[in-house]
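A reminder from the course coordinator: this example appears on the midterm review sheet, so study it carefully.

Given structure:
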């Protein structure tokens, strides 16, 4: 049945969601297609980094610092994931600038981890503060990744 409960056709809803009808868009709460496409592109970027790229190269980035650093970084990432998803209940947000900032932080951290993996034959600060920096990077990356995923699901 193409007619909705309120008496208007569903194609009107799709036009309003895509920004074709300003009055319908305001009534349904949609702001246009471009912000939605940008949020979904950011989500695709974050998922590509967190599910594909960084898990594939993490051993090259973490193992030069030793087995203990590798295990600590792996466990810290695993523990941080559910904690930051749960943190969203106490720090909810629907801010798109926050989303953009977190994606920028994620991209920066991912770039640094890629750099560490590319230079695994001579790791940076291996005998000094390298392990602590590595743990902080993993916690920030894992936390921001999950917060961005929950934030996109709330804003979109």
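Designed residues:
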């Amino acid at each position: 049945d193409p007619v909705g409960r309120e008496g208007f056709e569903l194609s009107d809803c799709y036009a309003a969601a895509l920004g074709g009808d300003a009055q319908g868009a305001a009534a349904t709460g949609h702001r246009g297609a471009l912000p939605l496409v940008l949020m979904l592109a950011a989500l695709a970027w974050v998922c590509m980094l967190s599910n594909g790229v960084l898990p594939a190269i993490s051993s090259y980035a973490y193992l030069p610092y030793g087995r203990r650093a590798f295990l600590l970084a792996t466990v810290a990432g695993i523990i941080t994931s559910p904690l930051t998803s749960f943190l969203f209940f106490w720090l909810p947000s629907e801010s798109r600038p926050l989303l953009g900032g977190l994606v920028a932080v994620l991209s920066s951290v991912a770039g640094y981890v890629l750099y560490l993996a590319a230079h695994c034959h001579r790791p940076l600060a291996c005998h000094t503060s390298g392990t602590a920096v590595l743990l902080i990077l993993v916690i920030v990356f894992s936390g921001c990744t999950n917060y961005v995923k929950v934030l996109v699901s709330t804003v979109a």
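The helical segments are 10-17, 22-28, 33-62, 67-87, 96-118, 130-155. Confidence is low (pLDDT under 50) at residues 12-17, 21-28.
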